[in-house]
């Protein structure tokens, strides 16, 4: 149960900041020797659902308004269109290369390299990215949505970070930091629901009532920790850069290569 709590905390704490939740879960799972590999994969899918639910709760008013006004409100239609456009690149690539990604890229070595490279890129983007002119998600163009979607596709590589790719990608393509972060939260919903739904369907034979309590502990822990992180990150990005996350990635990536790879 304690290991389930730790895994839930890792998921909730890292899902929405640019450090890669998948990479941290791979490292934590191997370090804790948590469950066997197949069961751990299913557990990680379940706790990701907890993190998604935290976004739904935090943005429940905007989501409800969007659903209610989708047929009449231009801003609601604009947001849904952009989310669909941004969703497509990662969805199509993930569906096409799902098995290859799971078989060949889910390793500590890949995570370590991706953490270091991603950290360096964050420092470069923070230094050279143009000032973002788009200050509201309702003003994001279809072209910018597609560009952010292509950036998100890079997160199919464990260790890259979906939130990092979308937030920093958004900053590169003309969004200010706060708008890129908010759009990243909304974009997490379709891509994570699709990915977890697909993985659960493939792993349905591994689901068991015997594991239900452990899975529930991880789910609830991931939900509450993710909720705290989402609210803290919104405040953080208003006044700070992501340089601290970049250096964290670089240090952790080096440690992973030193201690977790052979």
Quick overview of this protein structure:
The chain contains eleven helices and no strands. It has 262 residues and is mainly α. The longest helix is centred in the middle third of the chain and has 31 residues, at 74-104.
Structural commentary:
This protein is mainly alpha-helical and 262 residues long. The protein has helices spanning 2-14, 21-32, 37-58, 60-69, 74-104, 108-128, 142-153, 162-172, 177-202, 212-237, 243-259. It has one domain (2-259). The protein contains 11 helices and no strands. α2 runs antiparallel to α6 (108-128) and α8 packs antiparallel against α9. The mean pLDDT is 89.
Percent range for β-strand residues: under 5%
Unreliable stretches (pLDDT < 50, length at least 5) are: none
- Specify the structural class: mainly alpha
Q: Specify the overall morphology.
A: globular
- Per DSSP E runs of 2 or more residues, the count of β-strands stands at 0
What Rg do the Cα atoms give? Answer: 18 Å
The overall pLDDT average reads 89
**What is the H-and-E element order?**
HHHHHHHHHHH
Describe the main β-sheet briefly: none
Number of helices: 11
Q: What share of the residues lie within helices?
A: over 70%
Count of domain modules: 1
State the distance separating the first and last CA atoms.
29 Å
């Amino acid at each position: 149960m304690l290991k389930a709590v730790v895994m839930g905390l890792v998921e909730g704490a890292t899902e929405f900041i640019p450090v890669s939740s998948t990479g941290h879960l791979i490292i934590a799972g191997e370090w804790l020797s948590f469950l066997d590999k197949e069961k751990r994969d299913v557990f990680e899918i379940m706790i990701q659902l907890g993190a998604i639910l935290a976004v739904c709760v935090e943005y429940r008013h905007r989501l409800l308004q969007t659903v209610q006004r989708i047929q009449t409100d231009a801003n609601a239609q604009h947001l849904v269109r952009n989310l669909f456009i941004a969703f497509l690149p990662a969805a199509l690539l993930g569906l096409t290369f799902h098995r290859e990604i799971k078989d060949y890229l889910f390793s500590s070595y890949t995570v370590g390299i991706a953490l270091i490279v991603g950290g360096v890129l964050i420092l470069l983007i923070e230094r050279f990215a143009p000032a973002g002119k788009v200050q509201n998600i309702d003003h994001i163009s279809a072209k910018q949505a597609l560009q952010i979607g292509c950036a998100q596709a890079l997160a199919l590589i464990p260790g890259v970070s979906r939130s990092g790719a979308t937030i920093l990608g958004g900053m590169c393509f003309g969004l200010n930091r706060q708008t890129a972060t908010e759009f990243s939260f909304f974009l997490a919903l379709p891509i994570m629901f699709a990915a977890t739904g697909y993985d659960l369907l493939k792993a349905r034979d591994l689901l068991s009532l015997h594991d239900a309590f452990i899975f529930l502990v991880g789910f609830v822990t991931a939900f509450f920790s993710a909720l705290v992180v989402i609210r803290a990150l919104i405040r953080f990005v208003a006044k700070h850069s992501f340089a601290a996350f970049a250096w964290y990635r670089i240090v952790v990536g080096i440690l992973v290569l030193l201690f977790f790879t052979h």
